[in-house]
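User: My advisor, Dr. K., asked me to get a structural model of this assembly before our group meeting. I'm new to this, so sorry if the format is off. These are the inputs:
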Amino acid sequence: MKVQFKAKIPKEAKYIKDNEDSFRWSEKFGFAVLSDGASESFAAKVWSNLLVKKFLHTTTMDDAFLASIHEVYEDEINYQDLSWSKQAAYLRGSFATILALWENLEKTEVTVVAVGDSIAVLCKDNLSVDSFPYHESEEFTQRPKLLSTIPRHNEFLHSQDFLNTHQIRWPVDTTTHILLMTDALGAWCLKRIEENDPEWLSLLDLRNTPDFRKLVIKERKSGRMKIDDTSLLVLSF
Amino acid sequence: MYTSQITRSNPSAILFLIDQSGSMTDHMPAGTSKAQYVADVLNRSLYELTVRCTRSDGVRDYFHVGVLGYNSIGIVNGFSGELNANLMHPISEIESNPLRVEERIKKEPDGAGSYYEFKLKFPIWFEPRAEGGTPMQAALVRAAEEISQWCDDPNHMDSFPPTILHITDGESTDGDPEELAKQLQKLSTSDGQVLLFNLHLSSQNTDPILYPADEAALPNQYSKMLFRMSSPLPKQLITYAKDKDLAISNESRGFVFNADAISIVDFFDIGSKAIQVG
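Assistant: The format is fine. Below is the predicted structure of the whole assembly, which you can bring to the meeting.
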């Protein structure tokens, strides 16, 4: 697996450091992880960063694993020193998506695990073949489940069909590309595919961040892309 | 229309318009005075709005907020202390300047079928106040002046349009306010017209009503008038409200009778996604 392109564009140009998307990858181990911290969270950036850091080398998503991440999160916050509004926001929690992908040892297949509305799009020979966990742009209007710092919000992880609904396997070969995207770009990409608009293919040709920024800003201005932190990883095999 | 995203570069505005007339000493069916109810609604709305804008690194100014109180003494800035100098304030200034911060005990489910209690700091910005008449027309004119100025600011021209939350028992003493309310709703940014929400407080022992679609079922002439003065809910707000499980139809208006108005604060999408709070 190779990371052919990766970039993130902040929601507001003035606040680059507040970009709450995070991603990491390891070509050596065939892993890539993306997370979108929900803006309306106390510490979305910290939480999404911790999630990708810890998810980079795991294939398990359970209570114990989340608890270990939560412990580090708690260490970064001193509740008693917070202002009244920060205490209240802290108690409501932080939320983030996770989109993790890893190759099997034979490098013939990838497993994708997704919680929330960050999506992966599978392309073969420059054609979109599948997407996960959403298949239609309309799905982005729903309220996604997210991983939270408040354990009771993560109860959906205990569902018996969790793996059936949150995990998929895709075959890969040298003609394969996989796009990992946060929601604004994901919704835009699926919409372009639905409308047979070839503009989404430009994502596969991106080689530098300024070109990606130009595309995102143009699409935001046209109203076709939601103004949100926007991240993309393009993987080739 | 009503699609502009609320960001720090593109904030929106909320103006609370508060009836502080003598009739607000009357009691609600549950026993509290209308004035006390208003103070509670205001304090909780500001709390909710502020917390929604708070991050680990501080309070983000997604909103400018003001309060206009009115009675026969005049139409005045409803804030005291530091906040009394100007009418509209970035939400971070509201956060920093409550009159006092109280400690309250809150119960939350512990995830194992039980509850745990903890102390929560709760700021107070307003005390109940009630005296004199109800110059609703004059109050709407003043609100229009302030909101017009906000919309004319080049920094706000493309913002999500301001929302006015008017809390009253509806008994205007300076004439019929309906036409003025319509004029007020004609003010706009490039993203749409000003939204006027009315919260009607009544001593009448009738079930609360939230966001009705017509006036037929409303209990008295004041409710019906305030319903007609209220903005139809834009499609985007209806979507968010439905998402939060509020019973709302496509014809609903921003009118609430004897009910909590906190849900109005929840209408605004200031995040990248709705979160599963609660």
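One thing worth pointing out at the meeting: Residues 25 and 32 of chain A are 4 Å apart (CA to CA).

User: Perfect, thanks a lot.
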